[in-house]
Amino acid sequence: MKVMSTLFCAAAISAAFAMSPAYAEYPEKPIQIVVPVGTGGDTDFNAREMSKYLQKELGVALPVVNIAGAGGTIGARQVMSAKPDGYKVMFYHAGLMVSTATGIADFGWRDFELAAIAGKEGGTVLLVQKDAPWKTMDDLAAAIKAEPQSLSLTANVGATTYLIAKLLDKKGLKFNLVDVGGSSKRLTAILGGNVDLSQNPYAQVKDYLKNGELRALGTFTDERIKAAPDIPTLKEQGYDIAFQFNFYFAFPKGTPKEIVDKFGAAVMKVVQNPDYIADIKAYAQEPVAMIGDDAVARMEELDAIVNMVDLK
Questions:
Q1: Sheet order of strands, 112-120 included
Q2: pTM attached to this predicted model
Q3: pLDDT along the chain (312 residues), means of 10
Q4: Which of 4, 159, 184, 204 is deepest in the core (most CB within 10 A)?
Q5: What span, in angstroms and rounded, lies between the C-alpha atoms of 143 and 65?
Q6: C-alpha closest to that of 161 among 119, 200, 187, 190
């Protein structure tokens, strides 16, 4: 189920802004956006892009605060336990689903008020250094099956990279998993030769692929990344592994529906903004947003994928 920025219900957005008198003035002060991961990655980028354009729609500042740690659960818990008044909201992705499935978190996305899906990651690539001996996935598979766990792969416990590593494991590709931190630290690790392979957002590493410092063996997407048509997917190479998550906004449980709906409607307006669209396309992404039942259905679809694999 996909809802692009040009497809949404204007009537629903108008209704969201027709608030009861008690909430008609919302927001009256800055809204803090909590990002449960570190700076420099695609989650942080998308949060800050949304913040910039939501300010124009809502008329207040939306400062972004990064609270990393414990697979995203530290920041997520801070939002979950915050006052449900609409002034603290989480911007995250399927990492919380993974943390729940692994048992790191004793709560999940349903313990929040989902305001909107606010983007889709542009695609993750499997990286090696330029002089690595493996040219294709078959080369890599032969090496790792001959000596299981002999090669190191970045994977953050409780994050989507851990899920992908487990999907690889299920296909018989058993790596030595190394948790070095968020995407910026994963990039440093592969550039420095501290790991054999890494999983990173394409937009983050495209310059390194272009200048030849890194090489991509494949993408974890259903189709080739539009901005990188020369990189094959793992699926087309015979390895049925794909996972592209969505970013979303969620408020503490009990936040009034009028507030949640107004915020969601503002997100839907942001993805109509030509400047926003240009910004994220430059980051190799397409504008995607969903609210209401469509957003819930997509979250449940991602949850089902996560729970197909035993992560404990």
A1: 64-66, 32-35, 88-92, 246-252, 112-120
A2: 0.88
A3: 43 50 87 94 95 98 95 95 98 96 95 98 96 96 96 92 94 95 93 97 95 97 94 96 96 98 98 97 94 98 92 84
A4: 159
A5: 42
A6: 200
